[in-house]
Amino acid sequence: MIRIFIAENVPSLNKGEMAIMEGMLESFKTLGEVQVAMLSDLPHIDKTRYKTNIKIFDIKKILLLNHKLDYYHLSTSNYLSLSSLFFIIKVFLLFIYQHLLFITLYKILGSKSFVLFKSEIWREYAESDVIIIGHDGTFGIMGGTLGVPIFLYHIFMPLFAKMLGKPIVLYAGSIPQYYNRYKVFAHSHSIRWLLEKVTRTSLNMMDLITVRDRISYQYFKGTGLQGYKVFLTADPSFLVKPASLKRVEVIMRREGIVKSTGPLIGMTVTREIANKLYQDLEYSRNSYRKHIIMLSQIIDYLTSKLGAIVIILPHCIGYGKKNDDRIINADIFQLCENKDRVKLILDEYGPGELKGIIGQCDLFIGERIHSVIAAMSMFVPSIVISYSSDYRLDIIEMLDQKYAICHVENLDTNSFISRVNEIWLQRENIRMNLRTKIDKIKECAKLNGKLLKAFLDVRKIDTHRPRTI
Length: 469
Prior knowledge:
- The protein is an alpha/beta fold and 469 residues long.
- Helix content is 49%, strand content 13%.
- The protein has 19 helices and 13 strands.
- Helix 7 packs parallel to helix 9.
């Protein structure tokens, strides 16, 4: 049995993240029998959703952190207050101290060190066959991978793995996204230069790097990494299996969705875009209001001119109100004129169930990238709304769906309606085109697991090969 330790938090309330995890588990099947462990800052939530498939460790408990602190405010803010900075430094020092102390005692005492380090995570570190980081582009400066901010986490973990004698893999990752996260990083050339250097150091410590988009592939290759180490694959979420048709029909009946009454159009929306889109407005709430008014106008067009039933789905339901799509979805619904033709889904559904529902749509519009991946995986003509700087849009372009991309910087009601009409007229051609692409992209997603298996097989042979003198 191969023991895989995903040294990151993959929050199950975000169904895009959960889809990545389910896709990773699917890709691991090529390795044979595996045991997967991961870190979580909300284990009571993640354990009930991932169930018995994954062994989950409470990162806050291990770090002795206060569960009442608003870590998600730190992870979504563009600015760092002085108190936040002190907190980040405190967590960083505690994290480094604990891990360095463990590795020192483990090197000296071996398994006896577990008497002092009683948390199961330390044994998991020591007994794992491989450590994985970097899912969903979280290979970044602030270690948002844990839900709590660990400064330079992506540098320390490869170093820690090497000190422990464990291979470390960046699995289906993406280019680091820290430049625009905090303005001090965005505007300081010296800090950006330093981050480039430390990132390159970290990447050189990786034993294997698989990336899900061409932009990241070119970035990693540009750092001077050796060719055998970096591979272009695909996002694991392509491998999520949709719920059965019977299960989807049950959900649709429960939600009052009747497909025969007109075209079915699905939609996902995110508060993050709404709050930040209109930078010229003084407050984020003004940007939010302007954006949801525009979306409601688009929905009114779809329901009145196309006679469509519009389903607004939540693809993320937390943690916290800022990350709960159901809130912004409800605000949009209240502005819609033809409410009887708008279905607002409030219940929580898993990635497979959401994919099954989305697969029943005739057209899909998504501000959440993994909801669009789910749609295109089901051959549904789609439009993705995101920033032009979003590197993940290359995942969509890899499916030859560049015309499906709509940049929010240029978004207005009339131009978007024109795009909808163009896609709608070409929907059958788009479906046929997607059918020729999806099987290939799924094989690329499976390649993540195949490459990991090949690496571990070679490592196993090298470990048991007699040394010559």
